[in-house]
Amino acid sequence: MGIFSIFNKKKTDQPGAKAAPDSRLRVGEPSRLAQDTDADRARQREIARATAAKIDAIESAMSNDIFNTPEPAWGSGPRKVKPPVADGVAADTLPLLELATTELLADEDLPDAPVSPQTAPVIEEIAIMFANDQMAVTEHMLLDSLAELGKDDRTIWWMLFDLYQVGGRQDDFDNIAIDYASQFETSPPSWSPPLLPHGMEEPTFSGVTPTEVFSGVLDGEVAPRLERLLQRAGENPVLRLEFARIQTVTPDGCALLLETIKRLRASERELIVAGAAELAELVHSTIEIGKRDASEAPWLLLLALFQLLDREKDFEETAMDYCVTYEVSPPSFEPPSKVATAVSILHAAPATERFMLPSVIEGSTAALFDAIDAYAAASEETVLLDCSRLARVDYSAAAALLNRLRPIAAGKKIELRELNHLVAALFKLLGFTEVAKLFPHKY
Question: What pLDDT band is residue 127 in, cutting at 50, 70 and 90?
C-alpha cells in the first residue's frame, strides 16, 4: 500500500457528508464510451499511466527519505565535513587524515600504549621499588595487583614476567604464564633466558654493537659475508644478527650459516638474535620427513635455531623426525648460553649499528654517558639505544640519563628499543617520552 493510500479513505460514513453523484447507467441509456473516439480513449489511458507513474515516484522518494536515511552509530559524533582541496594537492590524500593512527602505522612502529589511569599510580610505585632493587617488595605488590588491576590491564602481568626473567626464575614464570593465558584467552608467553645467569656480578658490555642483516636468498654466495662476520666477532664481544628479512633458503646456505653459528657459540661471543623464529619457520617449510636423499643441512640448522630460541619441546620433536628420516641417533638439546632473542622491525630501515646498554645502570655512570654522547655524535638521524640486555636502572641513574639525553634530542631522534616493562614504567614516570620513543618488548 502506497503512502497516498492512507489519505484515500472514504468519507461517506461521516455525518453530514455529501453523497457522491450516481454515475451508474440507467436502463436504456447508451454508453458514453461508445460516443468517444478511439483516439480519445488512447489519450486518456496515456494520461492515467503518466499520473500513476508520478504518484509512484513521489511515494518512493518520500519512503526513502523517511525510512532509509542512515543514522550515525550510537555514541558517534557528528560527521566530519571534508575540507576543501587546496590547489596542487591530490584529492585522494586528504581522507587519510581521518584514519586512526593504527591504520597508518604497523604495530612494530608504535610505542607502547599508555597505562590506564586506574593502574598508573600502582605501576609507578612498583617501578620505583624495582629501580631501588627491592625485588621481594616488587614481587609482592605485583602479585597483589593481579586480582583487581590485572583483570583488564596486562601491564601488571608483563612486569611480573620481566621480574621473573631478570631473576632467572623460569618455574615461577611458567606458572604465571598459564594463568595469563587463561585470563586473556591467548597463548602463554615463552621464556627467554637472560644473557647472564642471576647472581653473576661481572660487568657486562656496553657500547656500539655491530649488526649483520641477512636478506633475500640464503645460498652459497653468503660465504664471504659470513667470513667477514667471524672476523668482526674477533673484534667485538657482542654481535646482533637479523634473520627476519630472509625470504628463501638453500641447503648450501643453511650449511654455511649453521657452521657460522657453531663457531660463534664456541667462541663464547654474546649474540643478540632477531628474527630467528621467522627463519626457523622458513627452514621448516623446506624439510620433508622420510626424504633421506635430501641434504641434512636444513634439519641441522633448524635444530640450531630452536636451541638459540630455547624451544626445547620443538627441538625434541624435530630431532625425532630427523632421527627417523636419516636413521641416526637424535642430537641432544643444549640450553643457549650468552644468547638473547629480539624482535625485528621490518617496517623500518635496518640499523647497521646500535648502542647496547649494560644489564644494570647504577653508581658511576660518567663513562657510559660519555660513550653514548660519542655514539650520538657519529649517528646521522636516529640514536638507537638497544635495551634488550638492560635489566634494571637505578632511580638516580635514570634521572641522570634523562638529563644527558635532552641535548641529543634537540637535534636527533632517540629510540630505546626492547625495554623490559619495569624499566619502561620508570622511564615513563620520569618523563623520558619528552625526549625519546620507548619501545617495550612484546609478550
Answer: very high
pTM: 0.60
Enumerate the CATH 3.30.750.24 domain ranges in the chain, comma separated.
354-440
Is a pLDDT exceeding 90 seen at residue 372? yes
Q: How far apart are CA 372 and CA 383, in angstroms?
A: 9
Which CATH code is given to the segment(s) 354-440?
Answer: 3.30.750.24
Q: How confident is the model at residue 255 (pLDDT cuts 50, 70, 90)?
A: very high
> Cell 614476567 appears where?
161
Asked whether the predicted pLDDT for residue 370 surpasses 60, the reply is yes
Residue range 88-110: average pLDDT? Answer: 38
| Residue 75, amino acid | G
Give the list of residues 6+ apart from residue 275 with CB closer than 8 angstroms, or none. Answer: 242, 243, 244, 245, 246, 344
CA 36, 40, 46: angle at the middle one, nearest 5? Answer: 140
**pLDDT given for residue 60 in this prediction:** 54
Q: Reply yes or no on whether the pLDDT at 248 is more than 50.
A: yes
CA 221 to chain centroid: 33
Report yes or no: 411 and 383 within 8 Å, Cβ to Cβ: no
Q: What is the pLDDT of residue 192?
A: 77
Least confident of 58-62, 218-222, 326-330: 58-62
C-alpha grid cell, residue 3 = 503512502
CATH number for the domain whose boundaries are 207-342 = 3.30.750
Three cell numbers, residue 272: 643478540
Distance, in Å, from the CA atom of 256 to the CA atom of 260, rounded to the nearest integer, reads 6
Rounded to 5°, angle at Cα 355 from 396 and 156: 55
User: Would you state the pLDDT for residue 81?
Assistant: 39
Pull the grid cell for residue 192: 627467554
